[in-house]
């Protein structure tokens, strides 16, 4: 367990440590953006509210562990996206892990360095909207009654969360877009949780998990397929075949996605130069990093960073 200095409500933490950059309301959609007051640590917060729903996107660099309380009156979904482990309700939650909340507040320990999560709160009225077919509504409500409500934030969910929080659409178009993407998120999570008990553990899952962990913990190193295969004692063809079968993306796709996610987080939460960020995500030359970043994001690193301040 991490020793923490202060326990705060999430609202009080934001009031104490952030300043509002922009806030506007359009067609029932309320958009708020805030950043850290301190010049020594970088933090960004975005809140999107509409139709009995609130989405919190929180990315913050802290120096001392601190515990905050996220209130959840009804239903909610928590997405842990930090490269390090946070402690949620006294349990360590690793990166790319999500869980369902049903009327319980979340006690979250923020740890030194980067903390990144997304939390979506639903009110019961959200599920009463006419857009939801009765069978879809039942599927969603069953989701919040699961006994083991954790899930993996896979490639599909990662892409959907990025689209939810970074869309350039505005007004009614943004409202419709967000609703559609939320339905996709709920569908993907439901598919994972309801099918979990029917899926037997893959024979090579322990080895593939070690490969994944090696990549996650060493994003500054670009391992070859041969090096990764040797690290877990299997041949390269088995590694490529079974990694894709379990994680639904190739080793290269996974490593690239993790590097780009980490780079985006560094661009959001630090003032590091592009050349230093390049090194931290495994590129010896910043030009190669910028090319890879633009290929994946349709923006250069500098364009992405400038867009965050708008």
TrEMBL record:
GO molecular function list: DNA-binding transcription factor activity; sequence-specific DNA binding
PANTHER family xrefs: REGULATORY PROTEIN PCHR
Organism: Flammeovirga pacifica
Keyword Transcription regulation: yes
Highest taxon listed in the record's lineage: Bacteria
Gene3D superfamilies cross-referenced by the UniProt entry: Homeodomain-like
Listed InterPro entries: Homeodomain-like_sf, HTH_AraC, HTH_AraC-typ_CS, PchR_regulatory_protein, Tscrpt_reg_AraC-type_HTH
Annotated ranges, domain HTH araC/xylS-type: 209-307
Keywords (A to Z) from UniProt: DNA-binding, Transcription, Transcription regulation
Pfam families for the chain: HTH_18
The protein's name: HTH araC/xylS-type domain-containing protein
């Amino acid at each position: 367990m991490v020793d923490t200095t202060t326990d705060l409500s999430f609202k009080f933490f934001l009031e104490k440590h952030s300043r509002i950059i922009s806030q506007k309301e359009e067609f029932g959609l309320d958009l708020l953006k805030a950043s850290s007051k301190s010049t020594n640590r970088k933090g960004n917060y975005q809140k999107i509210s509409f139709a009995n729903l609130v989405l919190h996107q929180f990315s913050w660099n802290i120096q001392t562990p601190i515990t905050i309380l996220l209130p959840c009156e009804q239903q909610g979904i928590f997405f842990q996206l930090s490269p390090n482990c946070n402690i949620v309700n006294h349990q360590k939650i690793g990166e790319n892990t999500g869980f369902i909340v049903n009327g319980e507040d979340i006690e979250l320990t923020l740890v030194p360095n980067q903390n990144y999560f997304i939390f979506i709160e639903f009110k019961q009225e959200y599920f009463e909207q006419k857009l939801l077919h009765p069978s879809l509504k039942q599927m969603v409500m069953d989701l919040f009654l699961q006994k083991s409500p954790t899930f993996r934030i896979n490639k599909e969910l990662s892409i959907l969360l990025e689209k939810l929080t970074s869309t350039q659409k505005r007004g009614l178009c943004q409202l419709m877009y967000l609703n559609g993407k939320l339905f996709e998120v709920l569908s993907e999570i439901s598919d994972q949780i309801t099918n979990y008990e029917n899926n037997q553990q893959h024979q090579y899952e322990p080895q593939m998990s070690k490969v994944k962990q090696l990549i996650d913990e060493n994003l500054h190193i670009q391992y070859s397929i041969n090096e990764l295969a040797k690290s877990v004692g299997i041949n390269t063809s088995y590694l490529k075949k079974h990694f894709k079968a379990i994680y639904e993306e190739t080793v290269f796709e996974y490593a690239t996605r993790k590097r780009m996610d980490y780079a985006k987080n560094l661009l959001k939460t630090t003032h590091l130069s592009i050349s230093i960020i390049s090194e931290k995500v495994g590129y010896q030359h910043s030009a190669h990093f910028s090319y890879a970043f633009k290929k994946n994001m349709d923006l250069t690193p500098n364009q992405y960073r400038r867009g965050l301040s708008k």
